[in-house]
Amino acid sequence: MKIALCAAALLVTQAAIAEEVVQKPAAEEPKQICTREKPVGSNRPIRVCRDAEAVEIVGERSREAFEVVLRNRFNPPELRP
Predict the structure, then answer these.
(1) Quick check: helix, strand or coil at residue 6?
(2) What is the sign, positive or negative, of the torsion defined by CA atoms of 68, 71, 74, 76?
(3) How does pLDDT run across 43-66, given as a tens digit for each residue?
(4) Where does the UniProt annotation place the signal sequence (predicted)?
(5) How confident is residue 39, by pLDDT bands cut at 50, 70 and 90?
(6) For the whole model, what pTM was predicted?
(7) Do 27 and 19 form a contact (C-beta atoms < 8 A)?
(8) What is the domain count for the chain?
(9) Separation CA 53–CA 20 (nearest Å)
(10) How many CA within 13 A on the CB side of residue 79?
(11) How far apart are CA 4 and CA 35, in angstroms?
């Protein structure tokens, strides 16, 4: 009897999950890209999730900052902008 009740509950749960998946279209929410990042001054990594557009913006800013570091590293102070 208990096994039958558990099996019935499991089937109802699976059906509810299947309905929820069908009702929720994938195009509604943008895909999230999650990374582990360490904040400045901390050794503890945290999980940061961003959409594709935000990841592109962060990557662009990182490249720009890296180029500035390289430019300043190899040029004497009087030639720096």
Answers:
(1) helix
(2) negative
(3) 899 999 999 888 899 899 999 999
(4) 1-18
(5) confident
(6) 0.48
(7) no
(8) 1
(9) 27
(10) 7
(11) 44
Query: At which residue do the structure tokens 């590293």 appear?
Result: 73
| Cβ burial 29-62 (10 Å sphere, 16+ → b, else e) | eeeeeeeeeeeeeeeeeeeeeeeeeeeeeeeeee
Task: List the domain range (segments joined by +) for residue 52.
Answer: 2-79
Instruction: Give yes or no for a contact between 34 and 48, defined as CB atoms under 8 angstroms apart.
Output: yes
Length of the chain: 81
Tell me the one-letter amino acid at 76: P
Residue-level pLDDT at 14: 53
Q: What is the pLDDT of residues 6-38, one digit of tens each?
A: 444 444 455 555 555 555 555 666 788 898 988
Phi-psi region of 38 (alpha: psi -120 to 50; beta: other; left: phi over 0): beta
